Structures are given as structure tokens and as C-alpha cells.
Amino acid sequence: MPVNKEQYQNLLMQAQARRCTVLAVSKTKSVEDILDLYALGQRDFAENYVQELLDKQAVLPQDIRWHFIGHLQTNKVKLIVPVVHLIHGVDSLKVLDEIQKTAAKVNRKVACLLQVHLAQEESTKYGFTPEDIAAVCTAYCSQPSRYSMVSLKGLMGMASLTTDVQKIRHEFASLRNLLEAMRRHYSCLGDSFKELSMGMSSDYAWALEEGSTMLRIGSLLFGAREYGTGH
Ligand SMILES: *Cc1c(COP(=O)(O)O)cnc(C)c1O
User: Fold this and answer.
1) Best probe residue, ligand 1, of 69, 215, 216, 220 (max atoms within 8 Å of C-beta)
2) So what's the pLDDT on residue 122?
3) pLDDT the model gives residue 1
4) Who's near 152: CB < 8 A, 6+ residues apart?
5) What is the pLDDT of residue 120?
């Protein structure tokens, strides 16, 4: 399916007006589809499956910034760490410890976002509670050597799958408030703890209004996904 160029330009304009980055979510999409967007200047692409990201990274231009937005299993961390630009879905201290271990081995500092479980209605089962986030920040700040190769850049969340706009906006606002609270409370996080990865094809307009810095957009750019077996 060809990339929707008009939709892309329109989205970019809206995002840029708010200093927000558009990530093209290319899961299940072909290398050709990705190159179509690349030709328009897109450099940030996001994938949900480790092997799919590695296969695409190997054959696509090397200046693409690959974002991992899926659920990361500890045994896959070592595969992704050498090539990833930003890991969005860190949802346990176990995964964060594993990232540190691998990053130290390959001597590559790895940028991460902490995933927060925002939704009241089923969109994902993954993510920390707000209370967990404070505990992670405490660990990160009180044991700097334990996380010397991890750089926490902010928070990621998915809103409820609902048409209730008030609810969606409220969930996005709560992610922004949590980020601001962590910045105030934990000065060790520094100014680079500022990213809010929130907003997808169906709800990006509300995410932009609530202060998103990274939109994760798939179907709006590439068309609907068709899932074969294996996903
Ligand atoms: C698939 C996916 C997206 C993109 O979804 P669209 O509705 O196609 O824009 C964004 N974020 C995550 C975590 C995803 O898994």
C-alpha cells in the first residue's frame, strides 16, 4: 500500500507547530513502504518486534533512528541495545537492569522511556503505575552507578481505547503531570527527562494538545495493518 503523502505532510505541520516529533510506526510494513517515507525526509521509525526491527535495520539506510515501542523481554535486550535509538516500553526494573548490563558490555549508552499504565479501558496491560515510576526514579537517582549506561528521557503511555475524548485527554494530561512531578522531585533526572511519547493515529490530536513530544503514528501514514500468522 502506498504511503499517504498528503496525510504525512499535514501531520508533520501539526506536530512541528508544537515542537513534537512524528515517529512512523512501520510494524508489518514493507521495506519499500518505509523507503517511500524516507524519501520524504522521515528518519524516525518505530517497531514493536525485536526481530522485525533487526531485519529492517540491516537493509535500510543507516541514518534511520529506530525506536522500539513494543513489550521488551529480558532475553531480547542484548539484540536490540546495539542498534536502537530509544526504547519506549521499559516496564520493569528487571528490564532496566538488563539494559544496563548489555549497554555496559557494548559500551553504548542507551536512551529509555518508562512506560506508564494509563488506560482504564483495555489498550495494553503493560506499564508501571505512577507510584512505581517514583520508585524507579528513586532507584535511578540513589544508585547512579547501577544505571550508568542508561539515560532516562521521559515517559510513554497509551490512552484507553475509547471514543470518550474527555477520558483520553485526562489520561494524556495525567502522563504530562507525572513527568512534571518527577522533574520537580528528582533533580538528578536533569533537563533531558522531558519526552512524552503519547498519541497514535486515532488520538494524536488530543495528545498534541496535552503536550506530547513524540507521536507514534502507524495506520494514518501506511494504511491499515494486515496481520499474518506470527504476530
Ligand atoms: C501499533 C502501535 C502504534 C501505532 O498505532 P496506529 O493506530 O496504527 O497509529 C503506536 N504505539 C504503539 C505502542 C503501537 O503498538
Assistant:
1) 216
2) 74
3) 67
4) 112, 113, 114, 137, 140, 189, 193
5) 76
**Ligand 1 centre from 216 Cα, in Å?**
6
- Identify residue 201 by its one-letter amino acid code: S
Task: Write out residues with Cβ below 6 Å of ligand 1.
Answer: 25, 27, 48, 69, 158, 200-202, 216-220
pLDDT, position 115: 97
According to DSSP, the β-strands at 44-47 and 214-217 are: unpaired
Query: What pLDDT, on the 0 to 100 scale, is given for residue 231?
Result: 46
**Pocket mutation for ligand 1, best pick of 29, 198, 200 (most atoms within 8 Å of C-beta):** 200
Series of mean pLDDT values for 10-residue runs along the chain (231 residues): 86 97 97 96 98 98 98 97 97 97 98 93 84 96 95 97 94 98 96 98 97 97 73 46
